[in-house]
Amino acid sequence: MSTESNPFQGYWNIIFSGSYTGADKVYINSDGSYSLSLLLRNAGGSSTYLFQGHVSTEGNLTGQTSGSERRVVGAITGSIHDNSGEGIWLIGSDTSGTWIVNR
Q1: Is the distance from CB of 98 to CB of 88 less than 8 angstroms?
Q2: In a domain, 58, yes or no
């Protein structure tokens, strides 16, 4: 097992856009794991979702999205390079968008 920390460890500003919008800070741990509870809003209201997953040492981000009952309802994928990154998120079959991060 490697003792090397993930080069993306630390706090990142994250912005979601698309069917819902929201912004917050997410912390990537030394092992690459992350967990973010985020309130997403649209014209019809708002909902809180939990985004959890992993960022590889190469910057590949993968994860799942859970709803209020912690049931998996979607996914999040993308990549991070140096001090920024981007990707897509999906909740159910009709709610989706993009995300960006920066330090």
Answers
A1: yes
A2: yes
In a domain, 85, yes or no: yes
Is 59:79 a contact under the CB 8 Å cutoff? yes
70's CB contacts (< 8 A; 6+ apart) are 50
Give tens-digit pLDDT for 13-70. Answer: 999 999 999 999 999 999 999 999 999 999 999 999 999 999 999 999 999 999 877 7
The three-state secondary structure class of 27 is: strand
> What residues make up the domain containing 79?
10-102
Question: pTM above 0.85?
Answer: yes
Residue closest to 96 by CA, chosen among 69, 76, 70: 76
Q: E strands of 1-94, at which residues?
A: 10-18, 22-28, 33-42, 45-55, 60-66, 72-81, 84-91
